[in-house]
Description:
This protein has helices at 3-6, 10-17, 27-44, 57-73, 185-191, 209-212; strands at 21-24, 50-54, 86-90, 93-97, 102-105, 119-125, 129-134, 144-149, 156-158, 161-163, 172-178, 195-204. Residues 1-6 have low confidence and may be disordered. Strands 1-12-11-2-10 form a five-stranded parallel beta sheet. Helix 3 (27-44) packs across helix 4. Helix content is 27%, strand content 30%. It has two domains: 1-55 and 164-214, Rossmann fold (3-Layer(aba) Sandwich); 84-159, SH3 type barrels. It is an alpha/beta fold. It is globular and about 50 Å long.
Amino acid sequence: MPLLRIAQLRGLAAYQDHGNIHFSDGRDAARAAAVRDYLADREQRPDASRVAVAQRRVDARGINEGIRSELQERGELAIGEESGEFTFQTDDGLRSFAAGDRLVFLENNRELGVKNGMLGEVKAVEHDAIHVALDGASDRADTRMIKVPMKDYQAVDHGYATTIHKNQGATVDRAFVLASGTMDRHLTYVAMSRHRHDVQLYGDAQEFASRRGVS
Length: 215
């Protein structure tokens, strides 16, 4: 069942009535809106937890890149090795990390004590390792520090945004969902139920035009 058909159900219709669903002119604009609102929430609620989610890996990566680029432009993330940003080979290609980055683990690892989809914040980066404070069970209060040896464990990525599949076990204060026309009932439920306090959904108006009855 396509996403906007589900909007006829009471759940998403209520979100729409309260202004939690946003359509933009094009997918790039929808992605940019999610980036903008994520960053605004980060600034307004620095102690809260949040994540952006998307069905498509390319969209999750685009949101990650947009957020990192803005944080670097603001001077909140290092740029280059001299400033503390190091680039590593990961399972999904080259990724650069600096203190303050969000990070997601993509595979279970007993030695590190991490599970697929677990999130954390980068606290320090060395030429061969990343030090991460794992998100706690309650508002990051119960954090645990680990050192990730990048030669031995490369299943990491930026964690500002993840795919819906990777985010199924996570709960955060606020979620920012980039919708796709191919999202079914299950994916929509998972994406819209990752939050404690608030969720915002973004979509390309043209992609959903026929489902909204808009020419």
